[in-house]
Amino acid sequence: MLKFHRHLKRIMAAMAAAALCSSAYAGFYTDGATLKDGNGNPFVMRGVNVPHAWFGSQTSQSLADISATGANSVRVVLSSGSRWSRTSASDVQSIIDTCKANNLIAVLEVHDTTGYGEQAGAQTLSGAVDYWLDIASVLQGEEDYVIINIGNEPFGNGASASEWVNGHANAINRLRSAGLTHTLMVDAPNWGQDWQGLMRANAPAVLSADVDNNVVFSVHMYQVYDTANKVQSYINGFVSDGLPLVVGEFAADHFAEDVAEGAILQTAQNAGVGYLGWSWSGNSSDLASLDIVENFNPSNLTSWGQTLINGANGIAATSATASVYSGGNSNNGGNNNGGNASCGTQDGNPICCDVNSDPDGDGWGWENNQSCVVTNSSNNNPACGTQDGTPICCDANSDPDGDGWGWENEQSCVAVSTGDNSSSGGSCDWHGSIYPVCQNTSSGWGWENDQSCISQMTCDSQ
């Protein structure tokens, strides 16, 4: 009955809108902790942040390259003109069109608000809303393809709960009053990391301030989230409270401090929570390890890029295209593909990726809204362990060519050397992650045999 009333409200709202203009808007909406697309299908973000405001000439090709990884969404950095060159309405329209051409959902964010209250020159949320209203004409009608992230990390440290709640409530009310019915994304305080728990405790107040009840909350997980327990506690807390959450930014480290990226990937996958890795390329030298590819070249995945895209619970294994692009059903090469599950099939049934999906030990589990069979090879949590989220090969013979990678249980696995930091059998233990040693690259990182590799010189330099 509740679901019927919700759809009745949406139908009546659409009829009212149709009376005022030539087309009624539908688009993304939230249903408890679940984000759903315009067809009513759950949509879980698996994507990448794109630094458009600083590298605009790279954006079009980057979007195509990101789509090729299997990503279903991108979060695009825009500028209102307060701190960087203003992203024009025509530029935003071009971004949306390119995303649609590449089957990507566009999360658009104003970056000028970053760290307001601590960062000199940072813009207020109200200023960000002014920008959204100024370019509203290119946003309206794109509700199926665009989510508006009102302002990036709009409060630094020291903001009160009432400042965060009221600032967003006022912003949401202004956007709704202007006729923008998109799903709105709200960033946490504390530079997005919410280490004080203000968003965690006060998200319901912001959600209730939206007449459309259509808000997704975004936490940025960096060094504050350096253990699996911290990651799980935060993500699972939102889900258990029925609140929609996305990890809007994260990486493997941040200013040389560790991040529990493997736990983020696995917890997000288990909980059905979206994530968007920071960032495709172009980070400053002190944050170069946050680049997913080197110099915008998709053939040169970094260590972080390898984990995000090709690791267990990464984009390639778990992403599903929004059904607005796929004719009404969410499907892609990821875990949402029923019998074609990334962890394999047995007698036509998907194999569970996580042995913990079978708590009663009866041989059957439940993942991705369907039954799965638990086997000895159910190994997103494999018996032989994981390395940076990627399964470790149990059998040394799985790597006959000695390149550091093998194939077991219908997926790639890493062949771990038992030696020191130098390569053994063609692999290198690079600060805890295993990579094949390049045969044709003398220094730095390379790309050989369709994968990233590390030179012997760089491996030995640790």
What key attributes describe this structure?
462 residues, alpha/beta, TIM Barrel, Xylanase, Chain A, 13 helices, disordered N terminus, hydrolase activity, hydrolyzing O-glycosyl compounds, Glyco_hydro_5, Beta-1,4-mannanase, CBM10/Dockerin_dom
Task: Please provide a brief summary of the model.
Residues 1-26 form the signal peptide. The chain has helices spanning 2-20, 59-68, 89-101, 125-134, 136-139, 161-177, 198-208, 228-240, 261-271, 303-310, 315-318, 323-326, 456-460; strands spanning 29-31, 34-36, 46-50, 73-78, 105-110, 146-149, 184-187, 215-221, 245-250, 253-254, 257-258, 274-277, 345-346, 349-350, 364-367, 370-373, 386-387, 390-391, 405-408, 411-414, 427-430, 433-436, 445-448, 451-454.
How many H/I helices? 13
Radius of gyration: 22 Å
Please describe the biggest sheet, giving its number of strands, its sense, and whether it closes into a barrel.
Answer: 8 strands, parallel, barrel
Give the amount of beta strand, in percent. Answer: 15-25%
Average pLDDT rating: 83
CATH class of the largest domain: Alpha Beta
Return the domain count.
3
Please provide the count of β strands: 24
Protein name: Beta-1,4-mannanase
Organism: Pseudomonas sp. ND137
Domain CBM10: 342-375, 383-416, 427-456
InterPro entries: CBM10, CBM10/Dockerin_dom, CBM10_sf, GH, Glyco_hydro_5, Glyco_hydro_5_CS
Describe it for me?
The structure is a single chain. The chain is of the alpha/beta class and 462 residues long. It folds into three domains: 27-326, Glycosidases (TIM Barrel, Alpha-Beta Barrel), CATH 3.20.20; 338-373, no CATH class; 392-460, Xylanase, Chain A (Roll), CATH 2.30.32. The protein has helices at 2-20, 59-68, 89-101, 125-134, 136-139, 161-177, 198-208, 228-240, 261-271, 303-310, 315-318, 323-326, 456-460; strands at residues 29-31, 34-36, 46-50, 73-78, 105-110, 146-149, 184-187, 215-221, 245-250, 253-254, 257-258, 274-277, 345-346, 349-350, 364-367, 370-373, 386-387, 390-391, 405-408, 411-414, 427-430, 433-436, 445-448, 451-454. The strands form nine sheets. The chain has an eight-stranded parallel barrel with strand order 3-4-5-6-7-8-9-12, surrounded by five helices. Strands 1-2 form a two-stranded antiparallel ribbon. Residues 1-24, 332-342, 377-383 and 418-425 have low confidence and may be disordered. Belongs to the glycosyl hydrolase 5 (cellulase A) family.
